[in-house]
Write a structure and sequence with these properties.
The chain is an alpha/beta fold and 282 residues long. Helix content is 43%, strand content 24%.
Length: 282
């Protein structure tokens, strides 16, 4: 059976306030309109909901039951609407585990301080989400990514745990942690280019590869080791003296961070996030 939502709202207000007149004031209607809505509801349901004695009204037994149900129902709707509105104030981002752990999560508080009306929700994964309200920040091949989607061109260098002695690049065996991407379509880290730029042949370097840069960085920090990795991911670690570099020269790579179809994220919250992340990455 279908009944008017407006009639239920009029009934709930009159039952809660104990007066058609007060219900009318609450809903910006006339007492006559309230009475009309409730009479139609009673007719539709074939019940009497109010005892009417002049201008005084009181609930019948049936009215008491319906009043409790409608009050509970409208409270649940209002609570759900509040949650939805709060969710609309959140920026939802999905990205790689490495960027999340080393850049976004450590910087999350800074974003929310600059944008007190917004919160950031971060998830990780390798696939691109299709939901229009989730912003995917991905690593891609510069040659196939739209230039307008790129937020940071990537470069690489060698880093080590803070306080460790500078390596002797040609006189001793060196273990170097690096990355073998899960996505085989991505260009490899540009180690050969880095060796050439720094005048090294790399004959004494033994590589140990992880499928995420985060793991190689953590391994280097834990074991006073060396890692060849993104300069983007290490920026904060350098500032906090958790890792160091050894006056070697970084090299550009064929990788970039990008947001697919970036220009389609036109909401105020999305625009604020995109401006912010381009700023901290660059």
């Amino acid at each position: 059976m279908q009944v008017s939502l407006q009639a239920l709202k009029a009934f709930e207000s009159a039952a809660r306030r104990g007066s058609f007149k007060l219900a009318a004031e609450e809903l910006s209607l006339t007492p006559t309109a309230i009475s009309h809505h409730i009479s139609n509801l009673e007719s539709r349901l074939n019940v009497t909901l109010f005892h009417r004695k002049g201008r005084r009204v009181s609930l019948t037994g049936t009215g008491v039951k319906l009043a409790k149900a409608t009050s509970d129902g409208f409270r649940k709707i209002e609570s759900a609407l509040d949650e939805v509105m709060k969710a609309g104030c959140a920026v939802r981002v999905t990205t790689t585990s490495s960027l999340a752990a080393l850049v976004l999560i450590p910087s999350q508080h800074e974003f929310e301080q600059v944008n007190p009306d917004l919160s950031m929700e971060i998830s990780t994964g390798e696939s691109i989400d299709n939901q229009s309200y989730i912003i995917p920040v991905r690593v891609g091949d510069v040659s196939v990514v739209e230039g307008s989607d790129i937020i940071k061109y990537e470069s690489f260098n060698v880093f080590g745990a803070y306080g460790m002695t500078s390596p002797s690049w040609s006189n001793e065996p060196i273990t170097l942690f690096t990355t073998k991407w899960k996505n085989t379509l991505l260009p490899d880290p540009p180690l050969a280019t880095w060796l050439e730029k720094n005048g090294l042949d790399g004959a004494n370097i033994k590589l140990k590869k992880f499928d995420q840069e985060l793991f190689g960085i953590q391994k280097a920090m834990a074991e006073n080791g060396l890692v060849f990795c993104s300069t983007t991911l290490t920026k904060r670690l350098l500032k906090t003296n958790l890792i160091q570099h050894f006056n070697t020269r970084p090299v550009k790579s064929d990788l970039c961070y990008y947001v697919p179809n970036k220009d389609n994220f036109g909401t105020r919250s999305s625009a604020k996030f995109l401006d912010w992340i381009e700023d901290i990455l660059n």
